[in-house]
Amino acid sequence: MSYDGFDLSEKTAVITGGNGGIGLGFARAVAAAGADVSIWGTNAKKNAAAEAELQAINPSASATLCDVSDEAAVEEAMNGVIERYGRIDACFPNAGIGNQNQKPFFEHSTKDWQKVIDVNLHGVFYTLRAATRQMVKQGEGGSLILTSSGTAIQGSPKGQAYASTKGGMIAMMMSLSVEMARYKITSNAVIPGWVETAMTERIFGWQKFVDAVIPRIPMRRWGTPDDFGAIAVYLMSDASRWHTGDVIKIDGGFSIF
Ligand code: NAP
C-alpha cells in the first residue's frame, strides 16, 4: 500500500521565477509528483535550460517569458497557461529581486524602491489575482504558495524595500487565506533561510559574512533549492487541504538559534 495524498497528477502549477533557484526546486518536485508545470521568468536562456530539465522529469512542463511587474504580461501569460493546460491548481508567486543597492536608508532612491516593490509586491498581486480568478471559476479549490523571507519578521538594514515587500506578502497571504477559504483555496507562505541561489551568490562569496552566519545556522550549511521540494508538493497536494494561513520557515534552524 502507498499513501497517495501527494499525487499531483491532473494538477497544474504556475511557478513564477521557476527557471532557477528556489522556484526551480519547487518545480522539479511538483513535476516529479505528476503536475503539469508552467514556469515564468524574464531570461530566455534560463527559461530554455529549466524547461529542458523539467521536461526530462515531466514532458508537459513549459516555460514562459513574463515580467511579473508588467500587469498586461501577467494576464497574457496566465491566459496562455489556461489555454495550454485547461486549468490552474496551484500558484507559486516566487519571482523576486533583492535590494537594488546597499546605501543607507536616507540615501535610498525612489527609483530603486519602486523597482523592488514593482516586482516583489505588485508582481505577486497581478499573479495571484489572475490565478485566483481562474481557480474560483473552476470551483475545485486550489493552493497559493508565496515565497516570503526572514526579512519580513527580522527586518533588513539598508534593505527596507525588500523587507517591506516580504512582510506585505505575509499580510496578503493571510488576507487571502480568509477570503479564499470558502472556495477551498488554501494560502500559505514559505520563509526560506539562507539558500544558495543566484540571488545570494555574491554575499556567499564574502568570507566575513560566511564566518558570521554559518555558526548561526544549527544545521551548519546553506539551504539548497531542493530543500524546498517537499513543502511545494505538500502545499499543492490534497494532503494539505485544511492547512491555510500559515507561515512555514525552512531555514536549518536559523530563526530560532
Ligand atoms: P534567484 O535564483 O535569483 O531566483 C529569482 C527568480 O525570479 C528567477 O527565476 C528570476 O528569473 C525571477 N525573476 C526576477 N525578476 C523577475 C520578473 N520581473 N519577472 C519574472 N521573473 C522574475 O533567487 P532565489 O533565491 O531562488 O529567489 C526566489 C525567491 O526566494 C525570491 O522571491 C526571494 O526573495 C526569495 N528568498 C530567497 C532567499 C535566499 O536565501 N536565496 C531567502 C529568502 C527568500 P529571470 O532571471 O529569468 O527573471
What does this 3D model show about the protein?
- This protein is of the alpha/beta class.
- It has a single domain, classed as NAD(P)-binding Rossmann-like Domain (Rossmann fold, 3-Layer(aba) Sandwich).
- Helix content is 44%, strand content 14%.
- The chain is built from nine helices and seven strands.
- A seven-stranded parallel β-sheet has the order 3-2-1-4-5-6-7, with helices on both faces.
- α1 (21-32) packs across α9 (229-236).
- The protein is globular and about 50 Å long.
- The model has no long low-confidence stretch (mean pLDDT 97).
- NADP nicotinamide-adenine-dinucleotide phosphate (NAP) binds next to α1 and β2.
Keywords:
14% strand, Rossmann fold, binds NADP nicotinamide-adenine-dinucleotide phosphate, alpha/beta, 7 strands, 9 helices, seven-stranded parallel sheet
Which stretches are low in confidence, meaning pLDDT under 50 for 5 or more residues running? none
The CATH class designation is: Alpha Beta
Distinct ligands: NADP nicotinamide-adenine-dinucleotide phosphate
**Structural class of the helix and strand makeup?**
alpha/beta
Proper CATH architecture = 3-Layer(aba) Sandwich
